[in-house]
Automatic annotation (TrEMBL):
SMART domains: BHL. It holds the Pfam family Bac_DNA_binding. GO terms for cellular component: cytosol. PANTHER family: DNA-BINDING PROTEIN HU, DNA-BINDING PROTEIN HU-BETA. It comes from the Bacteria. Keywords: DNA condensation, DNA-binding. The keyword Cell membrane does not apply. This is HU family DNA-binding protein. Belongs to the bacterial histone-like protein family. One of its GO terms (biological process) is chromosome condensation. InterPro entries: Hist_DNA-bd, Histone-like_DNA-bd_CS, IHF-like_DNA-bd_dom_sf. It comes from Sphingomonas hengshuiensis.
Length: 90
């Protein structure tokens, strides 16, 4: 399912117009992204938890030349599925 299909499903299930469903889906994505950007965690009980994981700087190798190179520290978004979501899939 892609984003447009998700918006269509939200519109069908909620009775919203497609435009309102698009605004709602976009708003949810924006709020989750903003919270993660601040370093906060988003917990949706029964669904899952969105969080940010810090990766330390490391040394790797350039695949073309084999020379060592530094890989910068970064933040990675993570999602851990909740019990309700796991149970609904199994």
């Amino acid at each position: 399912m892609n984003k447009q299909e998700l918006i269509g499903q939200v519109a069908d299930h909620s009775g919203l117009t497609r435009g309102d469903a698009m605004k709602a889906v976009e708003a949810v994505f924006d709020v989750i992204s903003a919270a993660l950007k601040k370093g906060d965690e988003v917990r949706l009980v029964g669904f899952g938890t969105f969080s940010v994981s810090k990766r330390k700087a490391s040394t790797g190798r350039n695949p073309r030349t084999g020379e060592p190179m530094t890989i910068k520290a970064s933040s990675q978004p993570k999602f851990k599925a909740g019990k309700g979501l796991k149970d609904s899939v199994n």
